[in-house]
Description:
The complex is a heterodimer.
Chain A: H1 2-27, H2 32-43, H3 50-61, H4 65-75, H5 82-96, H6 104-120, H7 138-149
Chain B: H1 2-27, E1 30-32, E2 39-41, H2 46-62, H3 67-70, H4 77-101, H5 107-123, H6 130-155, H7 162-170, H8 187-205, H9 216-226, H10 230-255
Helix pairs in contact in B: 1-4, 1-8, 2-4, 2-5, 4-6, 4-8, 6-8
Amino acid sequence: MQLKLIQSGGIVWTIVYAAFVVWIYATEPRTLREMATNTQVVAGTYQVDQEKFKNALEMFHREQFRAARDEWGRADPGAQDPRTQFYIAYTFYREGWGRLYDDDVLFKQGLETVNRAISLAPNQTLTVDDPDLQLHTAAELKAELEQGAERSWGDLNPVEVFRKRK
Amino acid sequence: MTDYISRNRALVRFIVLPTIFLSVALLGGVRVSAEARGLIFLAPPLITLLLAALLVALFVRAGALNLRAWITSDQPTLTNISHILTLLSVFFASAQAFNSVLPERGLFHWLFSFFFLWTLWNNQFASFDARRLVRSLAVLFGTAFVLKHLLLAGLYAPEGGWLKRLAGALLEGVSLGTIDVPAFAPATGYISFFALALYVAGLALLTPTPHALRDVDTQQLLEGYAKLSPQDRFTVREALTERQIELVKPEQDQGA
């Protein structure tokens, strides 16, 4: 009886440990903290740090985009919250936007982040009700970032100088 | 007394061994980056799987693993499943042990792979017993560890290791070339050392057959035999064969 118990326990333990090893190699965490975050995501207990999120939002409203991005990164270290990822993408848009030309590097980073936000959102649609923003959906933000990252003859249109940041 | 022995053996066979080998599988691919000090997990390259397959074949040939005793229809399904899991963990631990001592890329990666392949292929045709094989593997992995984590790491350290300075002084004017050797933090060497020590310890605990076939006296006799020189072993075998012939002869005479 005892032998059977050890045997069954050994099988369960081996499978669980092997799955853990495979999972570690699949997720490739860079730090122990990241490993803990990934574990929370798998366990379904992952939550965004609301205090840091609010701090970041205040920085965003004060147009401190880089600082806001860093703070949101700390609030959502696993990059698992679609709303936070949407805001991070928005910081790339606002920081990269220029009257004469847009910063391609920042826009591309914004595009990657908004794509992540869309993939994380339920049904891949995301709407953020924030009166400070002019683009309320991830789809709108994505279109704006794509448009800014593209090169076209329309970029040479002098009227473009009068366009407004959203 | 017997209860304790069988329980401890079961614990080693069903829990300790898989844990040791899976820990090796986990640690064998871990590196610590020199710049950011972040963890890097390297999955075993294809060549390490080939080397592990050769090594497991060597275990079987040397008698360190008797597959027919580990997996057999005479055992309950649960026992067979458990043994299959243990053997799989041995395979992946072997692959990761190689991964741990192989340089990650470049010329040295292929040189080390070639030498491992050569050694393991040669050993397939050499006569080994289980103990000698474990000793030989400890030396093989130990040598590769020293070459990779001490010599190569010292030679190609970004801040200039002791060996780089020594080589610079000895080979003044001679270039060390532009061989691509990735630099990792010293913690990588410690992790690799721990993984290899764990791997060799696991091999030492691994018995050719999973069951306790022997009683204490037989075990002591066999251990004493293993310590003998090849000449003494030959003498013992000869004596045993003669004794067996003497035992068989009267039966044959009676039969006739």
